[in-house]
Amino acid sequence: MTNTTIPSCPVCGMENTYPDGDNFICPDCSHEWSEAAKQDEVEEKRIHKDAHGNILNDGDTVTLIKDLKVKGSSLVIKGGTKIKNIRLVDGDHDIDCKVDGQSMLLKSEFMKKA
After folding, report:
1. Which has the closest alpha carbon to 15: 6, 23, 24?
2. pTM over 0.70
3. pLDDT of the chain along its 114 residues, tens only?
4. What is the DSSP letter of 22?
5. Where would I find the Protein YjdM N-terminal domain in this sequence (predicted)?
6. Are the C-beta atoms of residues 61 and 47 closer than 8 Å to each other?
7. Of the candidates 61, 53, 56, the residue with the CA atom closest to the CA atom of residue 94
8. Which domains does the chain have, with CATH numbers?
């Protein structure tokens, strides 16, 4: 192990942790984690961008830049529709939102940050 400092527990915040091989263990809340896994999570976090390259975050308000047909329906979401309180998810359709009361997954490439 190259790191000589022992981190506090990410769950309960207690500093009473100890190393066990490549992992750390918190005796107070029984949480077990590895620093390598924590670093991998930070590197794997995907950055979501809108059509103009602006970074999107959970809870943002976006506007559609073009009309979108909804698969399996005759519904068309008009360009210029404002969508509030988006949630970012992994996958091809990376925005989870509600449009006119219906839950939908949309692509961020058809959005601009409002």
Report:
1. 6
2. no
3. 444 678 888 888 888 888 888 889 999 888 888 876 555 554 456 789 999 999 999 999 999 999 999 888 898 999 999 999 999 998 889 999 999 899 999 999 999 998
4. T
5. 5-34
6. no
7. 56
8. 10-41 (2.20.25.10), 61-113 (2.30.30.40)
